[in-house]
Amino acid sequence: MTSYDLHIAGTRGAADHGWLKSFHTFSFANYYDPKRIHFGALRVLNDDTVSGGMGFGQHPHDNMEIISIPLEGDLEHKDSMGNTTVIRHGEIQVMSAGTGIYHSEYNRNKDAAVKFLQIWIFPNKKNVTPRYDQIELNPANRANKFDQILSPSADDAGVWIHQDAWFHIGKFDAGVSAEYSIKKAGNGLYVFVLSGEVTVDGQALASRDGLGIRDAASVSFSEMSQDAEILLMEVPMQL
């Protein structure tokens, strides 16, 4: 039987460090909720706003797939693999931390905030060679449909990670309906509303609301508001 985990935006953990304002869908740093540790392989979903010129200094990670999706502004990235780059809205970044990496993320602009989603996925392989990838997405591909932006395969659309996971983004006109079919039996789907409103399997969601869906073959989306933008994260439920 299909079950649902509803996470209304206002119930997320919140942290205000002055230069950083962050909302945590799942337990992270000083926010802890035993009922919100992870959703299957989806461990972290942070909604971050970083003030001009500020950012995260160099810090380590290992054995985690780390995905960044910029929503506004320019995020400057440096890492121990020798990568120095800027990630902008319309792009997606992925790092396989594997045996261990160090990286920093800073707001490149002094006069405007940068907003981005920081997502961590448990990998299906440990101690892999660390790697980095970043691609530009085509916004036209998500018009009134779900566009794949991440998968388990380097030969498929979007970036790839060491996990049987698929991410999609869609942006919709008012009144459009859509459906998503689960790609791998046993996977769950986490729906995160970036903007607007949508009804998902009968559950009304607004901006920054999240809904975890277990034991479903497909999921329906209806009653879209104008410019509703939705991020789908299909992940294994068994680790």
Automatic annotation (TrEMBL):
Residue ranges occupied by any Pirin N-terminal domain in the UniProt entry: 15-121
Quercetin 2,3-dioxygenase C-terminal cupin domain segment(s): 149-235
Similarity field: Belongs to the pirin family.
UniProt organism field: Aquirufa avitistagni
Coiled-coil positions: none
Protein name in the entry: Pirin family protein
InterPro entries, A to Z: Pirin, Pirin_N_dom, Quercetinase_C, RmlC-like_jellyroll, RmlC_Cupin_sf
SUPFAM superfamilies, A to Z: RmlC-like cupins
